[in-house]
From TrEMBL:
This is allantoinase. Pathway: Nitrogen metabolism; (S)-allantoin degradation; allantoate from (S)-allantoin: step 1/1. It comes from Selaginella moellendorffii (Spikemoss). Its cofactor is Zn(2+). Catalyzes the conversion of allantoin (5-ureidohydantoin) to allantoate by hydrolytic cleavage of the five-member hydantoin ring. Catalyzes the first step of the ureide allantoin degradation followed by the sequential activity of AAH, UGLYAH and UAH which allows a complete purine breakdown without the intermediate generation of urea. It holds the Pfam family ALN_composite. Residues 63-453 form the Amidohydrolase-related domain. GO terms for molecular function: allantoinase activity; cobalt ion binding; zinc ion binding. GO terms for biological process: allantoin catabolic process; purine nucleobase catabolic process.
Length: 475
């Protein structure tokens, strides 16, 4: 156990004047024993150095809150570990205050589309995890046509499924139509697990390779994936998601739209579907809240992702939606590649890999972008811990600070800033990121996973003791 933690003791107290609990922000001591939160006691001042021989860590005015849960990460291992990997990805997570993440079923090779392939994932993750990691399985035409494969994948512990309504960018992860999704939803309903959907649909007339336009212009990328792609996919998706309504043949399944960028009609459709009782939820990503097309330089492919980052007007609408509690959760969609695949020299948006590298920065980046929009610490915490825990069905043990739950905690200083420059250590496998050079508020001081101090002020525990998070079989 010692090497799993920089503070190898089982039983201790944390004190802070800002502990984020489901009942609000309080000045309190949090007792942690054997990996769990045991008690949270309101008190104005730090107790002495110890209570009955149990050490007290006084964090003063720093924020003590549930560790972030990033439900949308591409770790790409096995098969593309030169893109990211379990070791580097989970070290970056720990350094960023992320205590659990859920790995996407693609970009790894082979993709995670059957029980056997999930077992490959698990074997490959063994002894590499600095934080806890769950897995989404992939829904593709092949297993949508053979529901036994899907059931086995869910029996093996996939927390839910993910599919694409447009080409995924990876040849071995083909897209699904509304019909494939409709076929899979009753299976997900039986297991009570979600389907996550990349909702973009190619429109006739708009080619993602706009051969006649200058591929170095950001506008070429933006125009190649207009918001109508999101709107048309979401229209199709919500049509089949009707089956999730009470009494429907997929009641108990949840349809979750990942990485929404369009703040216009897509948002209106989702609101309406929720109001009608469909079991639908939605996330956006830090980069849609932090960046806008108005500020992306031509040739700067670090910002290339799908759906694309849209206008400043759109970004403001996304923040209004955050403030109106439209989003159920936030995620990173950390999807890095080797730097040369971003074609930094050519700056060709049409040919560069689409995916943004961000996992280590989501806490300070969300906070920094949110300050001018009145983001509160509680809302930040709900979007980054409670929401994703509920999506992944791990809220009984994670996602909030409450007695009985896992002691997954980030201690951070929202008022302290840092610059992502050459003195700052990025733990991602590749250092190319649009956050480079930025000044961010929200320095992570300590990250605790099940009571173990896995990260503190630039240092990690020497042994990776993260666990895999598998769904318990319900069938
Ligand atoms: N395959 C993959 O990771 N695609 C992701 N990248 C991105 O920008 N959007 C995605 O869905
Ligand atoms: Zn996607
Ligand atoms: Zn993704």
């Amino acid at each position: 156990l010692d090497r799993c933690s920089l503070l190898p003791i089982d039983h201790f107290f944390l004190f802070s004047k800002r502990v984020i609990t489901p009942a609000g922000i309080i000045s309190a001591s949090v007792e942690i024993d054997n990996g769990k939160v045991v008690s949270i006691l309101e008190r104005e001042e730090a107790p002495s150095k110890e209570i009955n021989g149990v050490p007290v860590m006084d964090y003063g005015n720093a924020v003590v809150m549930p560790g972030l849960i990033d439900a949308h990460v591409h770790l790409n291992e096995p098969g593309r570990e030169e893109w990211e990997g379990f070791v580097t990805g989970t070290m970056a997570a720990a350094a960023g205050g992320v205590t659990s993440l859920v790995d996407m079923p693609l970009n790894n090779f082979p993709t995670t589309t059957s029980s056997e392939l999930l077992k490959l994932k698990l074997a490959s993750a063994a002894e590499k995890l600095m934080v806890d990691v769950g897995f989404w399985g992939g829904l593709v035409p092949e297993n949508a046509a053979n529901l036994t494969i899907l059931e086995e994948l869910l029996d093996s512990g996939a927390l839910g499924l993910k599919s694409f309504m447009c080409p995924s960018g990876i040849n071995d992860f083909p897209m699904t139509t509304g019909q494939h999704i409709q076929a899979a939803l009753p299976v997900l309903a039986k297991y009570g697990r979600p389907l996550l959907v990349h909702a973009e649909k190619e429109q006739p007339g708009v080619k993602s390779s706009q051969v006649d336009k200058d591929p170095r212009l950001y506008s070429t990328h933006l125009e190649s994936r207009p918001n109508s792609w999101e709107q048309e996919a979401i229209r199709d998706l919500l049509d089949v998601a009707k089956d999730t309504a009470p009494g429907g043949k997929a009641e108990g399944a949840r349809v979750h739209i990942v990485h929404l960028s369009d703040a216009d009609e897509s948002m209106q459709m989702i609101k309406k579907a929720k109001a009608q009782g469909l079991n639908v939820s939605v996330e956006t990503c830090t980069h849609y809240l932090a960046f806008s097309s108005d500020n992306i330089g031509d040739g700067d492919t670090r910002y290339k992702c799908a759906p694309p980052i849209r206008s400043e007007v759109n970004r403001k609408k996304l923040w209004n939606a955050v403030n109106d509690d439209f989003f159920d959760l936030l995620s990173s969609d950390h999807s890095p590649s080797p730097s040369d695949m971003k074609l930094p020299e050519e700056g060709d948006f049409m040919r560069a890999w689409g995916g943004i590298s961000s996992l280590q920065f989501v806490l300070p980046a969300t906070w920094t972008a949110g300050i001018p929009h009145g983001l509160t610490l509680e809302k930040l915490s709900n979007l980054w811990s409670r929401g994703p825990a509920k999506l992944a069905n791990i809220y009984s043990s994670k996602g909030s600070l409450e007695p009985g739950k896992d002691a997954d905690i980030v201690v951070w200083d929202p008022e302290s800033s840092f610059v992502i420059d050459e003195n700052y250590t990025i733990f991602h496998k590749h250092k190319l990121t649009p956050y480079a050079g930025q000044t961010l508020y929200g320095r992570v001081i300590t990250t605790i996973v099940r009571g173990q101090h896995v990260y503190q002020e630039g240092h990690h525990a020497t042994q990776p003791c993260g666990k895999v998070l598998l769904a318990k079989s319900t069938s």
